[in-house]
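Training component of the fellowship. As part of building independent skills, the fellow (R.M.) carried out the full modelling exercise for a liganded target. The chosen ligand was adenosine-5'-triphosphate. The inputs are recorded below so that the supervisory panel can assess the work.
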Amino acid sequence: MTKTNLPNILITGTPGAGKSKLCEKLSKTLDGDYKYLDVSKIAKQKDFVEEFDEELQCPILDEDKLLDYLEPIMESGGNILEYHGCDFFPERWFQSVFVVRCNNTILFDRLKERNYNDKKVASNVECEIFGTIYEEALEAYNEDIVTEVKGESLKDLEESCKKIKNWVRAWNRK
Ligand SMILES: Nc1ncnc2c1ncn2[C@@H]1O[C@H](COP(=O)(O)OP(=O)(O)OP(=O)(O)O)[C@@H](O)[C@H]1O
Ligand SMILES: [Mg+2]
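Fellow's submitted model of the complex:
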């Protein structure tokens, strides 16, 4: 199968839920045809940042520039894309969307460990409690392609990775 036939997979979820950890494991376990793209890192490296939200201490992306950059990459397929939001990507980019979920106590500790300010911790924990990103994914994509996976423990990591690997296998057999 050529790279053009490979699907794109979106890994989304609240900051700290465990997306990067899952993507790193996935890109090791899936064959080398898949490229792991961390949107936050790309935006920083390529300066696709419009301004900085001082209160929440986070960059506000220049979405148009970012989307223009990603378009040809996504068109060629075989990408695992990570971002803590999902509603501004074109729906056609992704054949599968996985939302990493995390218990709020564990998430709180992880965000505290990052030394996020109280407001940022509270806002992200609240986002997870309300399932905001999962809701966003269900609204932005066909709900048949949206799956929740857990990112709390190493056992979850194994299971979530296996689930996605199985999805890729099933896709390849189609
Ligand atoms: N399944 C897991 N089991 C145990 N620890 C995990 C798991 N997933 C992530 N972690 C730990 O939680 C912290 C946050 O994880 P990670 O960086 O993957 O989150 P993220 O969702 O990518 O966050 P961001 O949105 O900021 O990129 C890290 O210290 C990571 O090692
Ligand atoms: Mg990450």
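The panel noted the following from the submitted structure. The longest strand covers residues 96-101. The mean pLDDT is 95.
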